[in-house]
User: Which sequence fits this backbone?
């Protein structure tokens, strides 16, 4: 069990009030970490924290609202975490956006910029805000939620796919730069998971049928099935793993 022991570690997660982010936060807390639940809506963050505290005792989870699109709000997230809990050991950049569905020729510049800023630049910003904590400790784990979309093109989600491919490059570069400080940086690449974010891809029974028939496991993933990877990458069990893109997709990525 010591391989997965996260006691005395502080984890910050964006996009963590529901879906995969909440599942990862719950799993980290279950293994001993104190978790910061962050998303745009403070009431949802507080609700998530209350449920975690009900299981583990008051203070295991902390709610801090943050819109990842604003650099000052990301810095406030880090500063408030320092004030309330201390230095950060684990960072999961999970929040992301996709405001456009359609061919790349039709995407407005505003939507393209928002996707790239929220899905890539915000992760760059937040990682560098947290890295000094980890450099000082000579230890830390950063995860970025990418996607299996990073491994192929799309006729309707092209810019989103581009952003998720860029996240892999970001992860690899940070892993190279900060490996000498014993800081590990990895990407989690979910396939189709039953979340509100991906609802348009699974809510229609016919669409779901077409998707799952190409998957070796013949089903869509659930948010909790991503959580174990987050615990693994946060813990000493993955102490020699960095710069990797770990897929959680029911085998779908190998069947492209």
Assistant:
């Amino acid at each position: 069990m010591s391989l997965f022991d996260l006691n005395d570690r502080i984890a910050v997660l964006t996009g963590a009030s529901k879906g995969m982010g909440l599942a990862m936060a719950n799993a980290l807390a279950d293994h001993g970490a104190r978790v910061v639940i962050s998303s745009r809506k403070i009431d949802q963050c507080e609700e998530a924290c209350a449920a975690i505290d009900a299981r583990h005792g008051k203070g295991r989870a902390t709610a801090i609202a943050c819109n990842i699109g604003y650099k000052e709000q990301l810095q406030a997230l880090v500063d408030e975490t320092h004030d309330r809990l201390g230095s950060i050991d684990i960072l999961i950049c999970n929040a992301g956006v996709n405001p456009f569905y359609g061919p790349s020729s039709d995407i407005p510049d505003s939507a393209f910029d928002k996707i790239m800023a929220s899905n890539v630049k915000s992760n760059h910003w937040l990682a560098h805000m947290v890295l000094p904590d980890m450099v000082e400790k000579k230890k830390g784990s950063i995860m970025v939620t990418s996607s299996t979309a990073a491994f192929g093109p799309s006729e309707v989600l092209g810019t989103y796919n581009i952003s998720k491919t860029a996240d892999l490059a970001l992860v690899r570069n940070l892993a190279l730069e900060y490996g000498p400080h014993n800081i590990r940086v990895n990407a989690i690449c979910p396939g189709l998971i039953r979340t509100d974010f991906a609802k348009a891809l699974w809510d229609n029974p016919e669409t779901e049928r077409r998707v799952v028939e190409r998957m070796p496991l013949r089903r869509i993933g659930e948010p909790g099935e991503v959580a174990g990877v987050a615990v693994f990458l946060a813990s000493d069990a993955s102490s020699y793993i960095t710069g990797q893109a770990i897929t959680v997709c029911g085998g779908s990525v190998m069947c492209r």
